[in-house]
Design brief:
Pfam families: UDG
Radius of gyration: 17 Å
Structural class: alpha/beta
Helix content: 25-40%
Shape: globular
CATH superfamily: Uracil-DNA glycosylase-like domain
Protein name: Uracil-DNA glycosylase-like domain-containing protein
Number of strands: 7
InterPro entries: Hypoxan-DNA_Glyclase (IPR026353), Uracil-DNA_glycosylase-like (IPR005122), Uracil-DNA_glycosylase-like_sf (IPR036895)
Number of helices: 7
Order of helices and strands: EEHHHEEEHEHHEH
Distance between the termini: 63 Å
Number of domains: 1
Strand order of the largest sheet: 3-2-6-7
Domain Uracil-DNA glycosylase-like: 19-169
Length: 175
């Protein structure tokens, strides 16, 4: 008798996420789910050219972030009091879709308050990240769900995403 075949995701390598982007003035921590294939390859958050993350922040702040190199973008992010990280520290996944994530390991979300004394709130970028709201809600800070900047979220126009993000960022003087 042959053994049952292993699920294909079990044969995938365990992927490791990116280090958090933090600064001494971080007031709002933005949490994605897990970096895309393009982001992992570049070792940069939101590196896929169709992801609207950098254009959206640029529109919020009146800065052409897309024209800046990555270290300059991160400097602007830190200067504004924004932190960037992901809910998952690692996972198995074929491709970049959140729906393909398996064997996910959480980042130390509970440790955010100790690491960031000025942290005032958390915001989840999209639905998969927002699945961790039950955890982030226990930190005693406001938690927001923002529409995903992923190219997979085509149902929201850029202007609609921008309005939702502007509303949350304004609450914490990030916009």
């Amino acid at each position: 008798m042959k053994p049952a075949p292993r699920p294909p995701d079990r044969d995938l390598p365990l992927l490791e996420g990116l280090a958090p982007v933090l600064g001494p003035h971080t007031r709002l921590m933005l949490l994605g789910s897990f970096p895309s294939v393009a982001s992992l390859a570049a070792q940069q958050y939101y590196a896929h050219p169709r992801n609207q993350f950098w254009p959206l922040l640029g529109a919020l702040w009146g800065v052409d972030l897309v024209a800046l190199d990555y270290p300059q973008r991160l400097a602007v992010v830190r200067e504004r009091g924004l932190g960037i990280w992901d809910v998952y520290a690692g996972c198995r996944r074929a491709g970049s879709l959140d729906s393909a994530i398996h064997d996910a390991r959480l980042n130390d979300l509970a440790g955010l308050r100790q690491r960031l004394p000025r942290l005032a709130a958390l915001a989840h970028n999209g639905g998969e990240s927002a699945r961790a709201m039950r955890i982030t809600a226990t930190l005693g800070l406001p938690v927001h769900r923002l529409p995903s900047t992923s190219p997979a979220n085509a149902s929201w126009r850029f202007e609609r995403k921008l309005a939702a993000w502007r509303e949350v960022f304004a609450l914490y003087d990030i916009a």
